[in-house]
Amino acid sequence: MKRRAFLQTTAAAPLLAADPPIPIIDTHVHLFDPSRAGGVPWPPKDNPVLYKTALPKRLREVTKGFNVVGAIEIEASPWFTDNQWVLDVCAQDTIMVGFAGNLEPGKPEFPKQLEQLARNSLFRGIRYGYLWDRDLRAGLAKPEFVADLGRLAKAGLSLDTANQSIRLLEDTLRITDRHPTLRIVIDHLPNIRVAAGERATYEKLLRELGARKQVYVKLSAILLRQKAADKPSTASLLDPLCATFGEDRVLYGSDWPNSDTSGTYAQGLSTVQSYFASKSRAVQEKFFWRNSQAAYRWVKRAQNQP
Question: Hey, what domains does the chain have and what are their CATH numbers?
Fold first, then answer.
């Protein structure tokens, strides 16, 4: 065997049949219960696929046999009281190892609310961006908003950003300038839609964000993006992101149950498993669980969790 071929084979050796399965931490699931008193702000009642109870018990059912040993809940409600509801639900099932909640930086009540929620070890940060009619750029123009992001960083918590666009990536870069120690998780980046005239700007933003070592990326919402007319391949979506952010800063996230509108949990998982199958076990472990620990510092709650 030639030396180059040998090195390529060993560097990207797939898992052997005798290797134990890699544990998976799903960094992006949503929990809600439309049947509870008062209802829910998400999902909408006219969505028959999503408008049903999504709790840890059901998560265990849909992930059975896939070695998903832990999950991180990402807020699916703008109501402050739902932070505690999610924490109470997560406390009852050890598969839940963390929660990125909903708070509004810049609000007078933010410091007290953050202090209150941070007392719970399952609370790992917040999600903010262009959702729930919020505007991250408008927030960044306010000193109190920027100061509250600093409080998040000082507490050792993280910031998830949604929903991805050129504007949001520009805002994310500005946050890293102001708070270089704040860990940021860019959600669903493969699903971003970039116009032809924005391609150069997008690639420049990726390079700049890729140089910020506290920025992580979820390789999620792939099937959703592949439903578009151009039907991009998995490699065309993930190769640039893996090359830019490296093996230490990409995360697995299913977006369950929102992902049910694009395919089954098994289909979404198999898509990324197939993509990473040619890579070393060390790289696969980083993607499926190790990097999530660095990004979220989640809490081990069960023996089968790494």
Answer: 101-296 (3.20.20.140)
